[in-house]
Amino acid sequence: MGRTILRCLFALTITIAALTLVSRDAVAQYQVGQKVMVRWKGKWYKARVLQVGNRRWFIHYKGYSASWNQWVGPHRIRPRFAPMGPRYVVGQRVMVFWKTRWYKARVLAARPGSWLIHYKGYGSNWNEWVGPGRIRPRQNVVPQPVPRPVPQPVPHPVPRPHFSVDVRVGPIWNQRHAMKICPRIASTTRWTGRWKTTIQGRMSVCNCKAAMSAFDVPAGPIWNQGHANKRCPRVCSRARWSGQWKNIRQGRMSVCNLRW
Questions:
Q1: More confident residue, 162 or 103
Q2: Which of 9, 21, 168, 182 could potentially form a cystine with 191 if both were Cys, beta carbons 3.0 to 4.6 Å apart?
Q3: CATH number for the domain formed by residue range(s) 32-80
Q4: Checking phi first, is residue 25 left (phi over 0); if not, alpha (psi -120 to 50) or beta?
Q5: Which of 168, 220, 228 is nearest to 199 (CA)?
Q6: Is the dihedral of CA 98, 77, 73, 50 positive or negative?
């Protein structure tokens, strides 16, 4: 009985001594000047140890003024370069977690604790550095990543072809006179706002735009087919007479059917 008690006390003494040595090692792992990471409000920041105390360290945050220097305990400090866990080499195929899914990727570069990856099927603008929590070997993942939908081109309506023609309307004296004459030359054409005199005091033309391949153009009074054969081919120099004409105001106005 006495020997059993002695053995228990000896084992307890060895355990306490081992814990004491581990605790001393943990306290002594950060030295003055060592680069570390310090957690502040849930985020890790780069820092440097300035002083070592009893299980606490006085640190300076990188990029911040001395007013932010503070003492931190072991629960808020860790080495700058944490163990990487699995090692991934350049060129290795991996799976990378982004938002809610795993995507196929390839390692482009490596540094302690992070890897530069390229997503398969995406441009280089998506390349990024990822930590060990977002990367794992390709063969360990069974589900395939869901491809992103490819936007389909929006069909645009095909514009109707327009044809620009010069229509003879007789003499036009000025712009005000043209604004009265040109819009009334035909219902199937539209005046573009341009006109010009071809024979001074005798003939002017209105530039019209037609949205159809066939349209009627006024040609003045036409008395018969022989007269139409002479008058209609000269109504528009850039269009072709279809051979048809008609009187719209007997003895005063006829129209020639032209085709582009």
A1: 103
A2: 182
A3: 2.30.30.140
A4: alpha
A5: 168
A6: negative
CA angle 139, 143, 145 (to 5 degrees): 100
Instruction: Give the per-residue pLDDT at 96.
Output: 92
Hey, is 233 helix, strand or coil?
helix
pTM (whole model) above 0.85: no
Q: Matching CATH topology for 32-80 and 163-259?
A: no
Q: Are 148 and 166 in contact (CB under 8 A)?
A: no
Residues 140/190, Cβ–Cβ less than 8 Å: no
Cα 2 to chain centroid distance, Å, stands at: 81
Of the options 2.60.40.2380, 3.30.1490.230, 3.30.70.100, 3.40.50.10260, the CATH number for the domain spanning 163-259 = 3.30.1490.230
pLDDT digits (tens, 9 = 90+) for 61-90: 999 999 999 999 888 888 876 554 567 899
Token representation of residue 177: 């006179």
Written as six digits, the tokens of 117 are 């990856």
Nearest to 74 by CA among 23, 113, 133: 23
Quick one: how far is CA 202 from the chain centroid?
Answer: 60
93-140: CATH class: mainly beta
Copy the structure tokens of residue 28: 């002594």
Strand partners, 120: none
| Amino acid in the structure at residue 56 | R
Minimal CA–CA distance to 104: which of 67, 71, 144? 144
Residue 127 has which token pair? Answer: 């390349």
Q: Which residue has the tokens 């005000």?
A: 176
Instruction: Delimit the domains of the chain by residue range.
Output: 32-80, 93-140, 163-259
